[in-house]
Amino acid sequence: MYVKRLFDIVVAFFGVLFLLVPFVIVAILIIADSKGGVFYRQTRVGRDKVNFELLKFRTMYTNSDQLGLLTVGDHDKRITKIGYWLRKYKIDELPQLLNVLKGDMSFVGPRPEVSKYVELYDLQQVRVLSVKPGITDWASIEFSEENELLAKSADPESFYINEVIPSKIIQNLRYINKHDLWVDLTIIFLTLKKIMIR
Fold this sequence. Notes:
- By secondary structure, this protein is mainly alpha-helical.
- It has 9 helices and 4 strands.
- It has a two-stranded antiparallel ribbon with strand order 1-2. A two-stranded parallel ribbon has the order 3-4.
- Helix 1 packs across helix 4 (96-102) and helix 7 packs antiparallel against helix 8 (156-177).
- The longest helix is centred in the last third of the chain and has 22 residues, at 156-177.
């Protein structure tokens, strides 16, 4: 546990330092592309059902989340021009390094959900809340094309609840049952590999 936290702090700290200039460039592009702030904050459910504010670069027009929580396909009209590229290469997720530094998240762990979906978990599924949520996990690798899958569904919300969430939780429980620093490094490597071939 201490090794995992130390790894998170050290890598996140140097990650923020290394990406400081790219962060500024991305911020300028976001502001130039559409009205609104640079960051998007959303309340997610963390370890032991404690809520926290997940931080991302804003990729949608302001208040677009009021039209629905799910992003359906890469051509969702709510996504800004720069937002498309930020999402494609997962750059929008990088501000979560600050969540890692703060201790709300880890590099690797079950992706945190909003309370709307967490409330649907059964007694077994709720085990995913026994560990810190992460920036990436086994499910993130398996569902790297999640938006496209939802776009093909006649009812994206129902498909997400009945198909995607249960499948993700199976992968999350797999991680909870067997994880260590080597597993974390493997997941990080496979995640980066998946991003590079997009």
